[in-house]
Amino acid sequence: MPRSTNEERNQVVGMLRANTPVANVARTFNVTRDTIYRLMNRLQTSGSVQDGPRTGRPRATTPAHDWYIRVMYLRDRFRPATKTAREWPGRKTISAPTVRRRLRAQGLIPRRPTRRIRLLPRHRRVRLNWARLHRRWILRQWDNVMFTD
Known about the structure:
Pfam families: HTH_29, HTH_Tnp_Tc3_2. By secondary structure, the chain is mainly α.
């Protein structure tokens, strides 16, 4: 049974041994009849209702971790994924792409903070003076400054 506990699987087996119809068992556990038949088949072949080994790498985060990533991001929309991954609590480390994937899975678009040159007030004054000095220039004067090919 998908995403069911061993206790639920054992309850299914008990109901089937008590001659409860498969349709009723499936309705009780909100699964399809095929799921119940597969569980019965697994019980007959292996003698157990335990989950078999799964392929693929185990997830690095749990649903609770995914919720935590979402909350952190909603509190600071421009928080970089690298910072979230670097400051991850717990023993297991996660990567920045993992953070981005978890945010995208929840419909959030991870943003990147813009990088700009830090201008000091002195720099702003110099730029403003330059712009004021050159704002009335005509194209012929600019031709001496800019090279066009």
